[in-house]
Amino acid sequence: MEKIRPYTELIDTLKGAGLRPTRQRLALAKLLYSRGDRHISAEQLHVEAMDAKVSVSLATVYNTLHQFHDAGLLREVLVEAGRSYFDTNISDHHHIFYEETGELIDIDKETVQFKNLPKLPEGKAISRVEVVVHVVDLDEKSKSV
């Protein structure tokens, strides 16, 4: 019986994306991908890493997330200036962002339709359109007015 190393699939994924499978990248990849599709900030992943006894700085977490994004392993979802989440679901889809909780959830791309898109300069094509719908709790909004 052939014994499979626990990180074999992650190692292959990182190598396939052109990334060297370092100890820290493997540990962060395991945290990212072991729970299915999810949205996570660098700060949240750093806390998870500390809880899992993975010795890694917040700067390394940021760098690794951006390397994974640049390699096509993650999507970065900017919800507001200076606040982004990393999405393990790299398929074409949109998001709802709950402002009170910071929760980000997926919206199937088929549920959002565009009547008009801008005319593009010659030689240009749309690579993708991303929508983040920001929502607030009406009860909370009325209390602040």
UniProtKB/TrEMBL annotation:
InterPro entries: FUR (IPR002481), WH-like_DNA-bd_sf (IPR036388), WH_DNA-bd_sf (IPR036390). Keywords: Cytoplasm, DNA-binding, Iron, Metal-binding, Repressor, Transcription, Transcription regulation, Zinc. One of its GO terms (biological process) is regulation of secondary metabolite biosynthetic process. One of its GO terms (molecular function) is transcription cis-regulatory region binding. One of its GO terms (cellular component) is cytoplasm. Its main location: cytoplasm. It is found in: Cytoplasm. Pfam families: FUR (PF01475). Belongs to the Fur family. Homodimer. This is Ferric uptake regulation protein. It comes from Kiloniella spongiae. The lineage of its organism: Bacteria, Pseudomonadati, Pseudomonadota, Alphaproteobacteria, Rhodospirillales.
